[in-house]
Amino acid sequence: MTGTVTDLRALYEDFHRHPEVAFEEHRTTAVIADLLRERGLRVSTSGTVTGVVASLDNGEGPVVALRADIDALPIAEETGLPYASTSEAMHACGHDVHITALLGAIDALRADSANWSGTLVAIFQPAEEVGSGARTLAASGIFADHPTPQVVLGQHTTALLPPGHLASRAGVLQAAADTWRVTLRGPGGHAAAPHRTVDLIVLAASIVLRLQTIVSRQLPPDRTAVVTVGTIHGGTVGNIIPDTVVFTVNARSFDEDVRATIAESVRRIVLGEAATAGLTIEPEIEHIVEFPRNVNDPVAHAAVEDALAEEFGADRVGEIAPLTGSEDFGEFGTYFGVPSVFWFFGGGLAPAVAHLDPAPNGHSPRYAPDPDRALPIAVRALTAAARRLFRHPIPAAAH
After folding, report:
1. CA–CA distance, 345 with 165 (Å, rounded to integer)
2. Cα separation of 90 and 163, whole Å?
3. Averaged confidence pLDDT in the chain
4. Tens digit of pLDDT for each residue in 148-168?
């Protein structure tokens, strides 16, 4: 394989056609590992977790890591594409673009080896969508046979930017995210005699409403946060008060003190409302999902921004406000103790879905980037940013 756009398009369609959800990316891992071995990279996989880490040695110099997420979502695809998913999962967040682009960037850097020196570390990370893939991959020991990166770079396609445009920001780029599963248990009873039991449906409704006051009444007006109850399950038929109700609470925050306030408030509200209702069984509150904030190192971000502006033109590289969407990419910078930089690029929409109104974006069953536009942009962006940091490494004291 030469790594041309035509080759990448075929690869992209294969990844799109065979999506795999978090921690089940076995085929994806095997395909990536084989492709990297064919290219002569040092390749590592783990016996305990999916994903691939590989390194390309090109003489003395900095160690730069590029990361792509590889998991899909449990969504049934509705794009009508000829290369649509063959399962009930779907690459509905563009991770198939990210995988293919990183492979393309590796090919581009291999072909341009005379113009940079150092070591490229390629990270193909599982389970981004559930927030624990980066931590699990790092904890597996998979990085032991590779040099420690001095900077980690990543990117994400979006339909919210025009094709060929890129955007990011220094500092906090994306919010932290937390999800709690709350389980209420009671005696249950007959709908005709609610006074003889504790109505968990009414209790859950009270908790859901009270949770909405965290942002509006417990946080300062100048602090941004989001609290959402995304699921609620309880009951079987209309004339039975259930003995169990389960719901999930999701929160987004940009500040660690706000994050702590939300966590404490969720617990206090759940326990307080349960006590007020007379529930004698203490509710179970489980912290089931945790995404860190995604924070761009200012010095490294400035270098990447310059590289992207040089590659695409300054008029195509902009700044965006912090996003309440979350991403576990920042775990790698924390794990290695080095700066990290993440950006977004406009990947357009495939012709099959481009006419839809409203235009679909990530996590929609109708979302599909245009690979003929997204892949060249993504490869160029990764390659330009990596090449800049190979040639002009970030001083250790600068971050």
Report:
1. 6
2. 22
3. 96
4. 999 999 999 999 999 999 999
- How confident is the model at residue 395, as a pLDDT? 81
Sheet holding 244-253, edge to edge: 225-234, 244-253, 176-185, 284-291
Please, which pLDDT band fits residue 398 given cuts at 50, 70 and 90?
A: low
Q: In angstroms, rounded to a whole number, what is the distance separating the alpha carbons of residues 177 and 259?
A: 9
Six-digit token pair at 394? 């970030």
Place of tokens 């409302």: 273
Q: Which of 399, 396, 389 is nearest to 63 (CA)?
A: 389
Which of 339, 204, 214 minimizes the C-alpha distance to 279?
A: 204
